[in-house]
Amino acid sequence: MDPKGDIAVIGLAVMGQNLILNMNDHGFTVVAHNRTTDKVDAFLANEAKGTNVIGAKSIQEMIANLKRPRRVMTMVKAGAAVDETFKHIIGFLEPGDILIDGGNSLYTDSNRRVAELGAKGILYVGAGVSGGEEGARNGPSIMPGGAPEAWPFIKPIFQGIAAKVEGDVPCCDWVGKGGSGHFVKMVHNGIEYGDMQLICEAYAILKQGLGLTNPEMVEIFDEWNKTELNSYLIEITRDILGYKEADGGFLVDKILDAAGQKGTGKWTVEVAMDLGIPITLISEAVFARTVSSMKSERVAASKVLSGPSPKMNVTDKKAFVEAVKYALYASKIISYTQGYMLFRAASKEFKWDLNFGGIALMWRGGCIIRSGFLGKIKDAFDRDANLTSLLMDPFFKGEIERAQAGWRQVVAAAVTHGIPVPAFSTALSFYDSYRAETLPANLLQAQRDYFGAHTYERTDGERGDFHHTNWTGRGGNVSSTVYKV
């Protein structure tokens, strides 16, 4: 009998199961496999009952059920588990077959796998998948990159199951070569860290500074979701703040304030440092989670260290809440500005030729950071494909100008009242640094040259012409090698 399977999915955790069911709903025949074969039986007897999903108890059975070229997608934990799974599969594949890693792999791992598998004739695709359990089931955002020859064979499946936005446009398109798909997903997750931290800082100001109740904040976030802040994360924040337990108490107030993280935010910051891009907001979001996890130390410190009361004496609460909205909005613009700076640097460094507007479109639906705001980013790159910074786009320049007064008011009030707002404040500092014609780095360069003969450039000379001064008369005239990190 001829094979019927359009694609195989290995890994029957929640994401794998929901992607399979999504594919089945869109008319694709999926072969399901799991290292623990009992899970295959359980899946077919329950969630996949009555579908066209084919269960496979072994790699051989899985491959035998696939049409050529075979398309195999792994949904397993990133890292060694992916490589180990691939080792078990490769011997059963032929040149031209396609291996897809749908987990949160580090982009450098995907770079390596493209080369290693390509040498064997296997087409590797690293596909970032965002949207969580709900997105996987009903339409995720998918960011595939790797061997371009694979795209025509997976495009109908991926674009078929992806979330759709206006005009039935799928939130999935080819990203580029190498590990670009997982790179874009990594930055997506970093921006997600930033968005969440910004919302938490707005929440802290409303709760601690203004003393608003949960129902009052539910109403505020509901209103914000009808404005330029419309997004999935604002929407779920509204729902979380209003969620009550059986005893009538609000659940969010009983959740320990110690945040976890899985590493993708940290990866984004590390890559940004390597490429020399100031991802200050995502950095602060990562460190904010780290500080939150130091719960016992913070409890001890709170009994010893002094500071002002967070209670704000605000005469016009409605106007101040509007200012908080603007601070959140402006800071969000900065976060995406920095993220796209990183995309531009990576595209140039790795020769990926990323489609910046296309990335924003892929994020419009299905993913955790989905929002109407992303359509404005696509519009910006439609106006100017070579845009150096979102801040230089007329729309975003105007929005920052509109939000700036409230942004500054909120940051100043938070600092005055001792409410930590690391993401709000670093966003504002970046904006002021970016718009500054002159920064105090001239003194910094003089200091570096004084103690380490690291040289400097002069305002009355040509760029690239480096000088060294014997500042003390004892240091000599030999300078260190000029290099840039």
Keywords summarizing the entry:
485 residues; alpha/beta; 7-stranded mixed beta sheet; two-stranded antiparallel sheet; 8% strand; globular
Give a brief rundown of this model.
The chain is of the alpha/beta class and 485 residues long.
Would you mind describing this structure in some detail?
Helix content is 52%, strand content 8%. By secondary structure, it is α/β, with parallel strands linked by helices. Strand 10 and strand 11 (466-467) form a beta hairpin. Helix 9 packs antiparallel against helix 10 (232-242). The termini are far apart.
Mean pLDDT, to the nearest integer, reads: 95
What percent of residues are in strands? 5-15%
Tell me the series of helices and strands, N- to C-terminal.
EHEHEHEHEHEHEHEEHHHHHHHHHHHHEE
Q: Roughly what percent helix?
A: 40-55%
Biggest β-sheet: strands ordered side by side in the sheet: 3-2-1-4-5-6-7
Uncertain regions spanning at least 5 consecutive residues:
none
First-to-last CA distance? 60 Å
Structural class: alpha/beta
* Largest sheet data: 7 strands, mixed
**What is the strand tally?**
11
Which geometry do the CA atoms define?
globular
| C-alpha Rg (nearest Å) | 26 Å
| Tally of individual helices | 19
Layout of strands and helices, then pairs:
Layout (H helix, E strand, L loop, with lengths): L6 E4 L3 H12 L4 E4 L4 H8 L8 E3 L2 H6 L6 E4 L5 H11 L7 E4 L5 H12 L4 E8 L1 H7 L2 E6 L4 H11 L2 E2 L3 E2 L9 H30 L4 H11 L7 H11 L21 H12 L4 H14 L1 H8 L14 H34 L5 H7 L10 H11 L10 H23 L5 H13 L6 H12 L3 E2 L8 E2 L18
Parallel strand pairs: 1-2, 1-4, 2-3, 4-5, 5-6
Antiparallel strand pairs: 6-7, 8-9, 10-11
Helix pairs in contact: 1-6, 5-8, 8-11, 8-12, 8-14, 9-10, 11-12, 12-18, 14-17, 14-18, 15-16
